[in-house]
Design brief:
It contains 10 helices and 13 strands. It has 274 residues and is of the alpha/beta class. It has 2 domains: 149 residues, Rossmann fold; 122 residues, Hypothetical Protein Tm841, Chain: A,domain 3 (2-Layer Sandwich), CATH 3.30.1180.10. The protein has a 6-stranded mixed β-sheet with strand order 10-9-8-13-11-12, sandwiched between helices. A 4-stranded parallel β-sheet has the order 2-1-6-7, sandwiched between helices. The relative contact order is 0.17.
């Protein structure tokens, strides 16, 4: 049997994680002089007040090897092999932490996959990991299949303010001239694990249109991300539903760790093609 482990930037509610039997290892964030562990997307308390009251002071910390080790040990002792898929190594050191923990616990029975994405992209890959395990695919073969699927998963998003992303140091090919002035918003993608610019949108309707256009026509599963108000994500979901009427497109709230780096007004879509 294979158990699935991921990290908290997967941004899913507790009931969904439990339904899939997925273990989530927390990343951490600091605000107001205190450090908090990120949890399920519906168990993070009033994190917006904490991080957005003084955005420049917010900090995040990767999940440590010490956080992965007890989870891995518990599963191995329970007779499981472990397939662990985590956020991009180009955005965080969480992948390195998971690899260190795997070597410490049982490198033969634990496979760690760098998703090269996060949030919805990570969740869609994690769901695929669960499906591969449920089909009885051997551990190493499942890990290789998951790595091949990374090219089929994507995220497009836009932010109200580029300041948080620039402070984070996690921008890839994004010109310094890209900003958020005159009602113009950047369109950003996570490509091969890093954030790159893919255009500009004017106004709310333009932002929805540009984000929806980034979703490939052969997408098999799509979800929409927001930070504060789900109503702000409804126009994007509606637009995508018109293009993909057969798909159930869910709304997923982002958590505090991504909130520190993206700011309050983020809107995005994630997808996977097969």
């Amino acid at each position: 049997m294979i158990a699935i482990v991921t990290d908290s930037t997967v941004c899913i509610p507790k009931n969904e994680a439990e339904a899939y039997g997925i273990r989530i290892v927390p990343n951490s964030y600091s605000a107001g002089g205190q450090t908090y562990r990120e949890s399920y997307s519906d168990r993070n308390g009033d994190f917006e007040r904490r991080i957005f009251s003084n955005p420049a002071a917010g900090k995040t910390s990767q999940a440590s090897a010490a956080a992965f080790i007890p989870v891995f040990r518990e599963l191995i002792r329970g007779g499981f092999e472990v397939l662990c898929v985590v956020l991009s190594s180009r955005l965080s050191g969480t992948y390195s932490s998971a690899c260190i923990a795997a070597r410490e616990v049982d490198a033969e029975r634990i496979a760690v996959v760098d998703s090269l994405t996060t949030a919805g992209g990570l969740w869609l890959l994690t769901k695929r990991a669960h499906a591969l395990a449920a089909r009885g695919m051997p551990l190493r073969q499942a890990a290789e299949r998951l790595e091949a699927l990374r090219e089929r998963a994507g995220i497009a998003f836009s932010v109200d303010d580029m300041a948080a992303l620039r402070r984070s140091g996690r921008l890839g090919l994004v010109p310094q001239s890209i900003g958020t002035v005159l009602n113009i918003r950047p369109i950003l993608l996570c490509v091969r694990g890093t954030v790159v610019a893919r255009g500009l949108a004017r106004g709310a309707a333009g932002r929805v249109r540009e984000l929806a256009d980034k979703v490939p026509p052969d997408a098999k599963e799509i979800l929409v991300h927001y930070m504060s108000d789900p109503a702000e994500a409804e126009p994007l979901r509606k637009s995508l539903k018109e293009s993909f009427p057969a798909l159930d497109i869910g709304l997923y709230r982002l958590g505090p760790v991504l909130g520190v780096h993206l700011g309050k007004g983020v809107l995005g879509a994630a997808w996977i093609c097969e």
